[in-house]
């Protein structure tokens, strides 16, 4: 059997690079997902996930995360988590619970403390300054408060054919206290079936959750479609419906991988993602939506793009 991982955004690449080394040595997809997402959660310069994630309207960091085991459909999820260092690890633990597998708000920290998970103040000075600057901009120029919704989502398959997926996000910057997007919702932010494949989404959660696009992608793969065809059909069909019936459609980006390690991507915005398989070294790609509604243009990210990205995310906040 082969192995592989696909993930949303450039920020996921270091995590999947490390996790696929473990997969190559016989590691499980379950461990790969948790280990890789924890690396994203722990890096303070990724402003949409974990430590350093941007806060809500009252300056609190509320995190959402989910984990799914494709072998038995076990799911664990948290929403509105405060003060828990690695929400993905808690979500994975919850996936083993017969009851109470989705916990929100204050209940997340209570469960995490009881189960021995590490607690941490997730608001960095950098994120606090960004939040304060946004408040000033809003008061001066009537700027919309909402910005950013870059969920890290991953799908993995190991050498035994077992598949898993996971998500983690601080959600929409300046969101209302208690707001939850698609990321921890089964079928919307993520879905995986080891007999078929998995998919995960990033973008505007309020629109993504209307279409259950991760589940739809897996369903279409189950009919025999290759991942690229399935994810493209799932996204474009619903995006077109939303445009026709509501008049607008938010940012949608999805990645998918089947149990053979084949992968696909769909997006209606410029989007970066990362892939590593038995036959492909960890690689960061850029995807651009096609003007004619066809498959996106996909190219390997240049060193210039990667350098500019690193400079941008680590630049001092004035």
TrEMBL record:
GO cellular component: cytoplasm
Domain of life where this protein originates: Bacteria
GO terms for MF: hydrolase activity, acting on carbon-nitrogen (but not peptide) bonds, in linear amides
PANTHER family according to UniProt: L-ASPARAGINASE, N(4)-(BETA-N-ACETYLGLUCOSAMINYL)-L-ASPARAGINASE
Binding site residues for substrate: 179-182, 202-205
Catalytic residue positions: 151 (nucleophile)
Cross-referenced SUPFAM superfamilies: N-terminal nucleophile aminohydrolases (Ntn hydrolases)
Residues at the site labelled Cleavage: 150-151
Protein name, per record: N(4)-(Beta-N-acetylglucosaminyl)-L-asparaginase
Signal peptide: none
């Amino acid at each position: 059997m082969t192995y592989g991982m696909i993930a949303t955004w450039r920020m996921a690449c270091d995590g999947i690079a490390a996790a696929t080394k473990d997969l190559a040595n016989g590691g499980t997809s379950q461990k790969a997902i948790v280990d890789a997402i924890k690396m994203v959660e722990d890096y303070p310069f990724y402003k949409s996930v974990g430590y350093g994630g941007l806060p809500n309207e009252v300056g609190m960091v509320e995190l959402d995360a989910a984990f799914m085991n494709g072998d038995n459909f076990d799911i664990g999820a948290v929403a509105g988590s405060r003060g828990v260092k690695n929400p993905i690890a808690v979500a994975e633990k919850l996936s083993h619970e017969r009851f109470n597998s989705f916990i929100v708000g204050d209940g997340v920290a209570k469960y995490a403390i009881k189960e021995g998970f590490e607690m941490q103040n997730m608001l960095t000075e950098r994120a606090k300054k960004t939040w304060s600057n946004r408040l000033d901009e809003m008061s001066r120029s009537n700027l919309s408060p909402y910005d950013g919704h870059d969920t890290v989502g991953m799908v993995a398959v190991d050498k035994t054919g077992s598949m898993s997926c996971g998500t983690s996000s601080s959600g929409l910057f300046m969101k209302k206290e208690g707001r939850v997007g698609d990321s921890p919702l089964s079928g919307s932010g993520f879905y995986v079936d080891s007999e078929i494949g998995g998919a995960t989404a990033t973008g505007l959660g309020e629109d993504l959750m209307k279409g259950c696009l991760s589940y739809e992608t897996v369903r279409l793969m189950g009919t025999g479609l290759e991942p690229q065809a399935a994810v493209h059909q799932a996204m474009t069909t619903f995006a077109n419906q939303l445009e026709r019936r509501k008049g607008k459609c938010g940012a949608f980006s999805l990645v998918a991988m089947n149990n053979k390690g084949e992968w696909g991507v769909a997006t209606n915005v410029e989007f970066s993602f990362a892939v590593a398989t038995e036959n492909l070294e960890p690689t960061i790609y850029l995807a651009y939506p096609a003007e004619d509604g066809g498959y996106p243009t996909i190219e390997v990210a240049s060193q210039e793009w990667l350098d500019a990205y690193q400079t941008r995310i680590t630049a001092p906040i004035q």
